[in-house]
Amino acid sequence: MERVFIVAAKRSAIGAFGGTLKDQAAGKIAAEVIKGALDAANINGAQVDEVIVGNVVGAGQGMGVGRQASLWAGIPATVPAYSLNMVCGSGMKTVMDGVSHIRSGDAKVVVAAGVEIMSQIPFIVPSKVRDGQKMGNLTLTDLLIADGLTDVYNQCHMGVTAENIAKRLDISRQEQDEFALASQQKAVAAIEMGKFEDEIVPLEIQQRKGTITFSTDEYPKANASLDALASLRPAFDREGSVTAGNASGINDGASAVILASESALKA
């Protein structure tokens, strides 16, 4: 069985919800990151055997985000490329599948990536409009909530799931706020020390006033404090402990790793 190695890993800077990446196509952002990873690994697109791209909410992004990313990254159309949706585990699952395919001998070099531009997840109207809506109001559905953050079986928002876990494991509001603050502080410190520079692929973003280079995570908050976090109201349960400050963030970004077999690296 082949041994598998990660030979390169790259990502975009993480954009805040409604931030710098809000108008960017998911496939194109993923493509830029994939190109950066291939360059770092000194691998030509023609040497790639497969491209797997994790993506949760694909509505409105065009057909086959994985294929889009592969082609825009300069990888030949003859190379299989597809998207994978395992919700929050999508990106990790692409790596697992890539490793499995290399170990089985089906591939030697695999691009495993993930992308989500949450700012672009659309609202939809009910499908009954196809048959005509003679009277009454139409309700828009936010796919960010419906397809990205809600358990379809129990109609439970992921924020409520976090509340349930906090209660079950007896994790206090203070513990959550302290952990959130530590996370913010570590991220800010790492940015200031340049710890992420080698892994980030700078992106050229066209804006009204011209082109900017986006290369620094914009979600971390340098002014975060325990007092500020403690002042926030619970977001999902009036008597709960999960807030906008200690919950998982809603962001935009992409990442990619290049997986290769031992025999491919020795060739």
TrEMBL record:
It comes from the Bacteria. This is Acetyl-CoA C-acyltransferase. Belongs to the thiolase-like superfamily. Thiolase family. PROSITE patterns: THIOLASE_1. Keywords: Acyltransferase, Transferase. It is an enzyme of class 2 (transferase). Residues 4-263 form the Thiolase N-terminal domain.
